[in-house]
């Protein structure tokens, strides 16, 4: 029994000497990351935190920009390797693009920034406010994308910071989101913004006016459209780029000769890797999942003086599955475009530019029974692209609808792959009118029953199964099945 | 020689006063033996074969010797009243008083029962099997040898009840999974804790199975709880071979194994592809004779696979003197994989040395060195691509160059031949221990282990594989450095008082820390395609970075046991563990356990039965176990950076996972009741165990709604109840001089139910598993397919949603509906819509659970479970003279498999993938067809929803291994200066009886909540091999 006693004494000794040291031993701090109490402390954190916010917007568009904005439209049909989801309107809850996670990740970063930026010490209020303004504008922008794609969605305007609180939120109706989030955020942004900031890779007051124009156009509030479009032009900062320089809008928006771009997203493969949508627009080692639809392809085959055609599609690729619009001109010896490989592809996403706002204004003027004003703007954009074109005259249009269709077609030509076409169709209630006959024809050709567009509720996207699984308070957008 | 070696080793390792003491001891030992009477003799077994290596000791002294390879021995015995003890593993010990004899020949009897075998229970403690209180399965070196295992999983499979093994053998170096007593947890890391020679580890990857002396599987809480926080999924204790005193034993083993895919699937050929095109309504079937997409007829699996061959050489040497023993081994394996151009080379070396200069002091170490080089060919992706590539796509153009992507499908053959992805891994570990007997009963042990693993990976894709214009090459280099140290110190106390009261106790502490550092360098446009260092290429900053992480654990533990005459046994255990992975408040956890056993057969009232009941023991125990296998830093909310650039600025962003500072241990409370029964003097041994395990505060990665900005958080939530029954019987069926037949059978029944979930909310894991209270883990939540609409008009249901039968007139025009009772139906006709489209002839009929016109997510149901109802193994060893045949059947029963490979091939979502022939030929083709397979032309998503159409029975019975050995006659062996030699042929995965239509019903699922989905990655192999073992 002596041994037993010795054993317990030794054990006690060991425990009492070692235990206090243990807690320190167990405090492992991350090797390559930092904890929350070490961030948003100084001017450097402000800049790197904002870069994180913009990175969130990049991630939103990297993979899904084309799926959301162009894939379901009459710009593209199926390619040799393509999935049927988009060109045949067969979206399901697992289609690429149905997952809204990247949008909400960006919103989460913005909400965190909005909470912590005001408390950063030793930075001028003007600087802080300008960053806050960008955050508010980008939050409005994110929700604007969400409601256009999925309709009613949950709204978060503050960071989620406590697991004890429910992470689940129900959907908020679209109208409430516009009234209580999108428009107030943009107005707040305009109050805080530094009006001298003209960096095309950041959201400036120009970007905020452009967003408001776009938002009110969606709401069919044409007075407000005209108000904000005029405020934008009133900045005297923007003008249409010269015909010969049209390409710069996409390859070098920061170029001093470009005064048209309002907000573009920067992309640098050396920092960001290859952009995801190169899989949809074609790259050196892959062709697009889509091919150019006949109408556009053929239009530019005929209208060769329009500079946009050959700078949008690659007419040397007869499969029509390579789109060179966003890539710098790099020519091989035989004169064909050399595409970057997928891991080096860069797209400097043109999110807003003056041509967009001018044509929106033209639409609004048309709606306000001012065809002359509308046609003037339409001609500006049209002639810039095709100086040989004959000017339209108001008398050329029998009705407001005819003029509207012509403006929309001009927008289609101007903004291929810029994520405008689908939303133009959606906001003008023309999805069924335009897509139904095209889909029926595609279905007939592929041997499937020509059911056309089908249920009009399919204009909205299905919510991804993962999103549904993670939040029991939301349900699938009808009529999507799974 | 012995003396020299000793004096060489001593100064090397011991310093100061101890060294003097040791040297004195050495003098005492070597100087104290004075010969009195010399006795000689031989030892043989019942068959008259001489037994080498039998230990002969003068009882109560340290005087002893061993028999030589002819079974002969000779020893000086101090007194005629001395008692000689003859002992050898597997034989009953003999005690003999020599008296005045000078020649003693002994015949040793083989043990029928293994009750005297020692079972290792951790931290220096071991008990005789007869004295155990827990549920422990053991696998011996002999059992391992009979399997010819590739890895640990192979060695255990079918040998232990309640241990569910999934053997992924197929890919070179694949490890498979081990799951003890059901799914007790939600998240990854369902594997047990490994304790290899006392060192706690999460895996046993670098272990050579031939080095294993014994494997102990601690299944119950009382046994495992000494390992506390990491023991919730059971503990596997592995003891490697160590040297034994005596002449050097040299073993050489050679084997060569060849394999093939055991179940090759039928793939559509070019003619089938054309049929598919016709059926899909493609009017223009291209015939361009120059187009690589149209004019081949390849068997992709044949083209992309080769005959796998594995050569292995094992060399071992062991032996030692009284003061120093050693075991050393070297293994070399050269493997050619199943996939073309896949290979794997492994060298493992081990040295185990134990040095015992005195009876009180022992020092030893284990040194392990390993080298592995393999060509990382992703077998899964290659096989998947082989199945997806239509047979008519060519690999070569007429000029001999490779086709690139054809309609989006890569040229896998070119990738296998030219893409470089090689990993070279060095690993080394050094383990040192000291045992010191403070008193006769009190033993102090301290040990420290250092382990380093450094994989180096080189990837390179040359220009020939590039389809960029102009062609470019790209590559990367990756270095990892994993380092772990672990320290333990503990005291063992063993005392028997008055002959009847045996007390054992252990107490101690341990600490360990693991670190990982990685660096990646991405490059492109290499100047030279044979030089892969980064100077050859241009640095790609977006793929170049370094990273690191670390974790730490600290523990205190103790166990005490008491036994009265080996009849009444009790033990109690307590462990306290702290982990860096948890929140500060919940960092420490306590893990207690108690156990008791009663040897009924030793009671007086059982005396009547001793002739046939040789042993009967009842056991009961209860304990709490823990689990901490979660990612590092999950307890901290973190900002990350380095891959979130914008416009030249490195962005700082919150991690996707929400940091949970309340994170704590997962606790598994387990009750175990068991019975051990030995019959007919140990000829039949039966063990039965029942357990009830409730796991609480389950650690799992809870998906957060992404609307919060986070994807998930590690949380402690919910509980699962596992109950099960395990039964093992081992028997000597028949034994004579020439024939020896032993057999073992085991079976385990398992049932796991989910007791509680976060907020009691059920959720769907992945896209097809329901996780709900009262449900089971692995419940498939899918649509139930009832058939295919025969006519467009068949989509008709009455007001109660009973299907109506359409009637047609002579011209085939629809007339009216009749209901099930045969009467004409004139009421309201309901129709079903899927994805908003009216379902027609050739579309799948789904069970419309919510009786409305929409087939949607709410019509899903729990349609089966991925967990087997029972599983086990059946082993036989039959020896006839010098031939031994051993074979093992394994079986698994009652589980369902979701054949996702079939679904992805069938769904026609991607234009180039051709459906399986069974779908193609049995599809609905014209109105009136009755089939389960939808029309090919109806390429609509809803026909390929996750449904019972792809849910299959996963039960199987398999002849997992068989081996026929010929033991060379010792006389013949001796002529070649060998002690023995064995020649054998063996096979694995020889036959399988199953209804499953995929590659193989046995595959592992990494995500427990999403188990039982076969994505078709691993066709299993059948292997046949020959081998030679020689002992010198």
Task: Describe this entry's structure for a reader.
The complex is a heterodimer of chains A (482) and B (1032). Chain A is mainly alpha-helical and 482 residues long. Chain A has helices at residues 2-25, 43-69, 101-116, 125-150, 174-192, 205-218, 222-234, 248-251, 269-272, 278-281, 294-302, 307-310, 354-367, 371-385, 400-414, 421-427, 431-445, 465-470, and strands spanning 34-35, 76-78, 261-264, 290-292, 350-353. In chain A, helix 3 (101-116) runs antiparallel to helix 4 and helix 5 (174-192) runs antiparallel to helix 6 (205-218). The longest helix of chain A is centred in the N-terminal third of the chain and has 27 residues, at 43-69. Chain B is mostly beta strands. Chain B has 12 helices and 59 strands. Chain B has a 22-stranded antiparallel barrel. In chain B, strands 10-15-16-13-14 form a 5-stranded mixed beta sheet. The longest helix of chain B has 15 residues, at 17-31. Classes of the chains: A mainly alpha (482), B mainly beta (1032). Chains A and B meet through helix 1, strand 1, helix 2, helix 3 and helix 9 of A and strand 24, strand 25, strand 27, strand 31 and strand 32 of B. Strand 1 (34-35) of chain A pairs antiparallel with strand 31 of chain B, so a sheet runs across the interface.
